[in-house]
């Protein structure tokens, strides 16, 4: 491959692609595959958001380039959302930046902050795009270990002191993918304190901030006093408003980092299509009843699968948010073996935990992105398998 860069050659194989290939093979053989692998909402965006997009698309002035940092209406809507949801004040001109989805923000942020050789603390298990973004920027990934035993809060004491001192950036993600773990304010307070101690930038990925259950409200890292001195938060409409394909998100917080990211991006993209930004602004200025409805749907699915798994002797921590259930692989299988067993013997796709880092081994992630009837079918099929009981009570 003479035309392909080492950077691209060195990217890890995309695990989802191999499962999708197996899915096609099985479907070609008449298997009714239930895909709980990819974390993308199955439901549509709210109709008022779609209406606003259609309306704005008719205004031809919206067909021009957006300002680089995103239009004022969108940035102001983000600032208003932070004020009403978190009582956090943001200057829409210097502390808010529109992103073409938070995944784009994560990738470009690394290039805006990280020099080759710089160390970045990345949650393990965690969203795989963090590791590849660090790698593409020439940074060095260091594990920030998370564990079931303490609710997946960062275990700083297990990170080598030298690594803590060297690290230039630390990434967190609550409510989290893949663990579905949620954080309390104290987790962010400690993170900001540790980041200050070791002179790091703290980046919080809040992709699931609005998908929460049982009255739990996810805090923002910017609620920690003076957090803006060294923290930014990434948000997205993808999961909360079922807008994955729209590609709209935002970065908020430290003005210096926001400006660096905006400068970098102004050399790469020219922000998102204005009607999409304006429709997203309408979403953020709404009463959030649509998001509450989406959360109720995910919670009902989660409850169903959680109790179905329990009957099967498969254990999970009951989550207070996200669109995932993170469950223990029953005794006697690796994550990959169990995922393959589900695929080939039950026609059910789940994601093996090791896809999210070494510490994900022993777990599998289920995306709650099919309806309850299909989840009943998942449990029915799994009951036919000979799965040994797990060992946890
Ligand atoms: C889905 C997801 C994203 C990507 O969201 P986009 O805004 O659609 O790019 C980012 N972080 C986590 C943890 C996710 O699960």
Care to give the gist of this entry?
With 393 residues, this protein is α/β, with parallel strands linked by helices. The chain folds into two domains: 6-45 and 289-383, Aspartate Aminotransferase, domain 1; 47-284, Type I PLP-dependent aspartate aminotransferase-like (Major domain) (Aspartate Aminotransferase, domain 2), CATH 3.40.640.10.
Characterization of the model:
The termini are far apart. It contains 13 helices and 12 strands. The longest helix is centred in the C-terminal third of the chain and has 24 residues, at 289-312. With 393 residues, the chain is an alpha/beta fold. The protein has helices spanning 6-9, 15-28, 47-58, 72-86, 102-113, 128-136, 161-166, 185-197, 255-266, 274-284, 289-312, 335-346, 372-384; strands spanning 34-35, 96-99, 119-124, 140-145, 169-172, 201-205, 231-236, 249-253, 324-328, 348-349, 351-352, 363-367. The protein has 2 domains: 6-45 and 289-383, Aspartate Aminotransferase, domain 1 (Alpha-Beta Complex), CATH 3.90.1150.10; 47-284, Type I PLP-dependent aspartate aminotransferase-like (Major domain) (Aspartate Aminotransferase, domain 2, 3-Layer(aba) Sandwich). Strands 2-8-7-6-5-3-4 form a 7-stranded mixed beta sheet, with helices on both faces. It has a 3-stranded antiparallel beta sheet with strand order 9-12-11. Pyridoxal-5'-phosphate binds next to helix 5. This is Aminotransferase. Its cofactor is pyridoxal 5'-phosphate.
């Amino acid at each position: 491959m003479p035309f392909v860069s080492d950077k691209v050659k060195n990217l890890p194989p995309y695990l989802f692609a191999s499962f999708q290939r197996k899915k096609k093979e099985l479907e070609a053989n008449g298997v009714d595959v239930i895909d709980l692998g990819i974390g993308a909402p199955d439901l549509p965006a709210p109709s008022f958001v779609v209406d606003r997009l259609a309306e704005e698309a008719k205004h031809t002035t919206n067909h021009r380039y957006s300002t680089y940092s995103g239009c004022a209406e969108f940035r102001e809507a983000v600032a208003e959302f932070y004020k009403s949801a978190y009582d956090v004040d943001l200057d829409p001109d210097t502390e808010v930046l529109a992103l073409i989805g938070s995944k784009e923000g994560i990738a470009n942020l690394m290039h805006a902050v990280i020099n080759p050789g710089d160390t970045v603390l990345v949650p393990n298990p965690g969203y795989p795009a963090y590791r590849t973004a660090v790698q593409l920027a020439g940074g060095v990934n260091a594990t920030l270990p998370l564990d079931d035993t303490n609710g997946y809060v960062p275990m700083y004491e297990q990170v080598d002191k030298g690594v803590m001192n060297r690290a230039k950036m630390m990434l967190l993600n609550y409510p989290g993918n893949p663990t579905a773990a949620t954080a309390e304010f104290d987790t962010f307070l400690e993170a900001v304190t540790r980041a200050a101690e070791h002179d790091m930038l703290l980046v919080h990925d809040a992709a699931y901030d609005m998908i929460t259950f049982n009255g739990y409200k996810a805090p923002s890292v910017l609620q920690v006093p003076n957090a803006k001195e060294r923290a930014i938060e990434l948000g997205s409409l993808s999961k909360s408003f079922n807008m994955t394909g729209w590609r709209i998100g935002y970065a908020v917080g430290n003005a210096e980092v926001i400006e660096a990211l905006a400068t970098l991006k102004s050399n790469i993209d020219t922000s998102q299509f204005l009607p999409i930004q304006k429709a997203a602004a309408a979403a953020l200025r709404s009463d959030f009843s649509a998001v509450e409805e989406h959360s109720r749907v995910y919670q009902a699915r989660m409850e169903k699968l959680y109790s179905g798994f329990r009957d099967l002797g498969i254990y999970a921590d009951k989550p207070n948010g996200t669109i995932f259930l993170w469950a223990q692989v029953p005794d006697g299988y690796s994550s990959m073996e169990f995922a393959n067993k589900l695929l080939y013997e039950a026609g059910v796709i789940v994601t093996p935990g090791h896809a999210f880092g070494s510490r994900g081994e022993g777990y599998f992630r289920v995306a709650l992105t099919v309806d309850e009837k299909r989840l009943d079918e998942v449990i029915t099929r799994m009951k036919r398998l000979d799965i040994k009981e797990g060992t946890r009570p």
